[in-house]
Amino acid sequence: xxxxxxxxxxxxxxxxxxxxxxxLFLASEVMLFGGLFSAYIFLRxxxxxxxxxxxxxxxxGFVNTVxxxxxxxxxxxxxxxxxxxxxxxxxxxxxxxxxxxxxxxxNKTLEYKAKFAHYAVKLTDGTLLTGHLPHGYQIKFDGxxxxxxSVPVKKSAVSADPVGYVLPFIEGDAPKxxxxxxxxxxxxxATFASLAASAVEKAKAxxxxxxxxxxxxxxxxxxxxxxxxIFGYTDTTITFRDGTTATGKLVDDKMTLExxxxxxxxxAQSEKSLAFDHRYLGExxxxxxxxxxxxxxxxxEKDYPTRDKSKSATLQKExxxxxxxxxxxxxxxxxxxxxxxxxxxxxxxxxxxxxxxxHPTVVLEKxxxxxxxxxxxxxxxxxxxxxxxTGLHGAHVVVGALVLLYFLxxxxxxxKKDPEHLANRVEVGGLFWHxxxxxxxxxxxxxxxx
Amino acid sequence: xxxxxxxxxxxxxxYIAIGALxxxxxxxxxxxxxxxxxxxxxxxxxxxxxxxxxxxxxxLIFMHLNHERSTIYKIxxxxxxxxxxxxxxxxxxxxxxxxxxxxxxxxxx
Amino acid sequence: MSAAATTHDHAHDHAHDxxxxxxxxxxxxxxxxxxxxxxxxxxxxxLTGLIFLLFGFFLMLLMRWSIAYPGVPVPAIETIxxxxxxxxxxxxxxxxxxxxxxxLNGELYNMLGAMHGTIMVFFGIVPLGFAAFGxxxxxxxxxTIDMAFPRLNMMSYWFFFISCVLMMYSFFVGTGPVQxxxxxxxPLASTANIGVTSVWNHGHTWWLTAMVFNISASLLGSVNFIxxxxxxxxxxxxxxxxxFFCWAMFVTAFLLLLAFPPLEVAAILQLSDxxxxxxxxxxxxxMEGGKHLDISGGGSPLxxxxxxxxxxxPEVYVLILPAFAILTDIIPCNARRPLWGYKxxxxxxxxxxxxxxxxxxHHMYLTGMGTMMSTYFQITTVLISVPSVIxxxxxxxxxxxxxxxxxxxxxxxxxxxxxxxxxxLTGLPLAFAFIDLALHDTYYVIGHFHYVVAPGTIFxxxxxxxxxxxxxxxxxxxxxxxxxxxxxSLVGMNLVFAPMFIQGxxxxxxxxxxxxxxxxxxxxxxxxxxxxxxxxxxxxxxDIPDNMLSLNIVMSIGAFIxxxxxxxxxxxxxxxxxxxxxxxxxxxxxxxxxxxATPTPPPxxxxxxxxxAHRGPYEYSVPGHGTDFYPQWESEPGKPETNPxxxxxxxxx
Lengths: 450, 109, 653
Ligand code: HEM
Ligand SMILES: [Cu+2]
Known about the structure:
In chain B, 71% of the residues lie in helices and 0% in strands. Chain B is mainly alpha-helical and 109 residues long.
């Protein structure tokens, strides 16, 4: 016995089952992206920082738009060819569709990669510096001899795990450690497990909630770790994510940044931005900044004499978000006249750290930094929603392409036997594909252009 | 639905034309986004109108919504209502026309 | 599983469908585990749901202990710990958080509370009410052979199963399960316990991942339900001849379909906050423990609440509509009267479904959202009570003049009506922002919604189990044990939930792990109810102090009675599968809807003849008709429908 109306439409509703199914599914997808878009509106309306406009690579976005539209045409053509029983053309169109999906995803990957390598640092006065970290960013400790670890008696979230969370950050080979009973050990999983077990036994006997273990290094140890890899540090101690604390001396937590942009929109007096401190970019860059700023302001006054300067987000951006294109400040009068800033993030510019410098390098002190992140969801709510929206959309592209590929490759036997059924399937898959295109039609202007 | 072969044959050209139109509109959106209108809100409005036209073309022509069954229209109508409710009320919730806060405040953003 | 086993045997007795279709050479695994048959899937959902209801109930018992006796060791804790296997399990899930003396602390209480809510709502009631009863009964009632997409149906269950595993796993990870309430409000939920080793060490991450699977399962299920109802109704089954059960399931499926995606968004964004460090729900300058968090800020907790309640209000109707669905079958059948006002009920449930999307922010009056929003939501909230009242009233009037058969399911059904009434009426004051100011987040709210879902929905679910058990297994559940199940449950439920209104109006906060012990004002306050409690306690020789806190003890006693009341049910359920009284007819309750036209239990493919709906679904006590019921499928009074299924198979080829 078969389920009715899988191929032919039910007379009174005029629909076959899968058609209802896909439209219901799309309805729920509308609500999914509806929820995301309303989150976008909510975040944008409530944003307390200048919302990035034209910040992404518009060319790449436009290419992807064209690719998706093309694939939308080919997928509907594939369906039409199938209906007309032109099987060869059906296959060609379907293949192009899947190919378009692949191109789209490759572009997306390039775009994401460029973002991940790019950093933004917020200084205490509200200045935002963008650029690259040629050497990464690490906290360095030296002269560490003592580790104190804590193992709770009951299973808990925080339990010392030096092999997983401490040893990886030792520079060079790990030395031998001495336990409190004077035993000399090499720290590995098995040794530590037995050490912890006996300590826990003792703690239990003493009716304590957790056992503490002290280890003394035979030779002083150096540590280097990214801030995200550890829990926290002071001038003399470093705490790892497993709760283990090491005592030593902080030798370096400065950040070397190749600056490609100074965003002074968050600073009351933009020319006094901390970025132009003598320790950092210095006076020459300050001059370039000011001349660029005043150039844009006077140009705006000329072009739009009746408009309010303080209300133009574009002017704010052009005047106060200064892009650095060379290692040394340009000579007087050369700095302005650049276009919008989008190209600053283009992959071509990512020569950072390859010897010849395109950008000035500054060494930022920790006390001047309030927040830093690469261009990931962490950076601000704009990038958070950008990655979420495009990431989910990308997932839809992948799933849709896989389904279409399945029809093309594995469902081919249905072609001769039951082309009507296959046409239904392609129609349903196509509807999903058009929906993916439809979402992008809104994503592209909202994230890239407006 | 365009089920007879002739109708489909005719629509093939239409699909390609619509595709070209969509690409044209996309280019237009990009170009317009670089022109500074009196407020950025207007830029957004223009961009969204263009996007809505494009979306409508895709939905009506490619997704055959120009001649679909009433059941589908009913499902989509409810969905559209709820999605719009989602948009509007989200904005209203921290932007209140009664107290002139947020979006309705005299300060342009 | 033996219920399913009988199904299978029976299917072969009837030997109705032996042509080669592949699904008949299946072995056990494909037949009962990865089955695509809507009845098997319904039973899978049902059993899972029942187990989770029991588990969620157990979590609540632990909580109630802490509320009534804060700081007192859990009774028999050492015995529990010493049990083989169970002891270790208990220790890993809960024991490791207990205080040294074996009493509960706030941390464990919060875990229990959050998981109780989550499990009851998403893993207990929805799977049982919507997925289990809907899957089993709905295709039978519209006279079709299966769901429109049987394989999606199977996937739905397995997505749900994965979500169950992930959710249970969260008990075992480092920081234990979530502690932030079933509502999972950010920023607390975005930041709690973050920063320690890996994110996968937090129950929270698992909660969110599990919810993503759970939501996907619901979406697949609801697509299936709607497509089935639209396209697979059998001949003659016009929309207005469809049992109200199916209408309610139809609306429920729409609620799930359109309301769950925003929750999925909420979960994804919260996951991003936790895993990628984004600030969707975190405002600028957020501090924790006196330190600025390492976040960009710029988000808003309000966004989370909107996305959450956009689902969660429709979700409460997802909880109640299956209950209405079940009752509209049981009440007419046992009152031997047609359902009163079928049409107005259908329109009401459609209105209710529509309005339920427009009232969500009545949970957010205290967030400081705009006055216009607040006004709007007060109006819609009051509006939505109208269709709810119509539904309830129609069911009450359906009893009028009936010769009621008080079997167990009817007892549960008739208790539902006043209980739901209390729950609904206590919701009305909450609809007004100025009253909600005082009552929000107090035990009053807890009382309100528990009256709707516990003695409301859960009673309806029990009624449904008693009602359809004979169809599923071919045996009745024991009526005596059923009554032993019903009365303690009714008493227990009211003892637990009625005092909550009093406490709530006295200002008791809903999340105190110690029941308010350390708040002097609460313990000093007395009124008639506390005095009554004191006197009754004294009568039995207990010294229960005359203050508000004593109500905690009353409620915990109620919970204990409720727990005892479930023992007869569990015994009844398992023993009746094999040992219950056998049914002598395929239609043991003399009902009129189509599921009773199938063999017992219904075989794969359901019907032995091509079912046609000849009349409405509630033709009881039709004047001039020979018997007091006139089934939908009978073409002439009393004439058995015999055309063999083989014809039907051919007809579809
Ligand atoms: C009949 C009309 C109803 C009205 C006017 C109503 C109104 C309300 C209001 C205003 C609240 C928010 C209280 C607060 O948090 O301060 C609330 C909470 C709640 N209601 Fe209702 N309700 C109704 C029916 C129902 C039904 C039928 C159900 C479930 C089946 C239900 C379940 C809930 C739940 C679960 C909550 C609390 C959620 C939480 O905060 O954890 N309500 N109700
Ligand atoms: Cu509500």
